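Lab notebook: predicted structure, single chain.

Context: the supervisor wants predicted structures on file for every construct in the current expression panel, including those that have not yet been purified. This is the next one on the list. No modifications to the sequence; it matches the entry in the shared construct table.
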Amino acid sequence: MRTTVHIKNLECCGCAKTIENTLSKIKNVSEVIVDFNKETVTFNFHTKHDFDMVKYVLSRIGYPIVGKESRLIN
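Prediction complete. Output recorded below exactly as produced.
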């Protein structure tokens, strides 16, 4: 599955790179793309557990998800 989420605190391109590098290390998470201008992160994942892990990690590194997650794209 693929989804896009809006995040807080995305202030520079370095932040975007940190997010891409960190999320890419999570098992079953791939094709992480951060859009600095839209303050979004798009990524592929396999299960709800994988998605929940992304939410947890984003929050822990200072970029919590805001609002509702975008509709999942299969």
